[in-house]
Amino acid sequence: MSAVHKFSVHNDQFQWEDVQANVLDMDGIQSARKHILIGDKENAPNSIMRFFNLDPGGHSNLERHPQEHSVIILQGKGNVQIGNEVFNVEPFDVVFIEGNELHQFSNPFDDPFGFICVIPK
């Protein structure tokens, strides 16, 4: 089903109408939330679009897996590790991480860091 989720900002937190923020509470992840913007609920057959928010000091898991990532930074600044390199990123920078590449997103700064990440289904 086609859908539109209207965007808003509340207390520096990005949010979308009818999309819940899920706190990621797993080993290897710190101070992170995930919003599934487009996915199963919208019957998207080929990809999933997510928004991740990392609080100051937060980070995603250092991991590798078969699916690729297409990312655009929307909020704040942060770091992305790809393989053994670390890159500083800020709004409107785009990142591509190929499948099975070691990677991690982190926020060593004082403001929220948020990015959209699209993966194949």
Provide keyphrases for this structure:
single chain; Jelly Rolls; 3-stranded antiparallel sheet
Q: What is Rg?
A: 14 Å
Estimate the strand proportion.
Answer: over 45%
C-alpha termini separation: 16 Å
- State the total count of DSSP E strands: 11
Structural class computed from helices and strand pairing: mainly beta
Q: Which series of helices and strands comes N to C?
A: EEEEEEEEEEE
CATH class: Mainly Beta
What is the CATH third-level topology name?
Answer: Jelly Rolls
- Which strand order spans the largest sheet, edge to edge or round the barrel? 3-4-5-11-6-9
Describe the sheet with the most strands. Answer: 6 strands, antiparallel
Describe this structure in words.
With 121 residues, the protein is mainly β. It has a single domain (7-120), classed as Jelly Rolls. Helices cover 0% and strands 55% of the residues. The radius of gyration is 14 Å and the shape is globular. The two termini are 16 Å apart.
Task: List strands and helices in order, with pairings.
Layout: E1 7-10, E2 13-16, E3 21-23, E4 30-38, E5 47-59, E6 69-75, E7 78-82, E8 85-89, E9 94-97, E10 103-106, E11 113-120
Antiparallel strand pairs: 1-2, 3-4, 4-5, 5-11, 6-9, 6-11, 7-8, 7-10
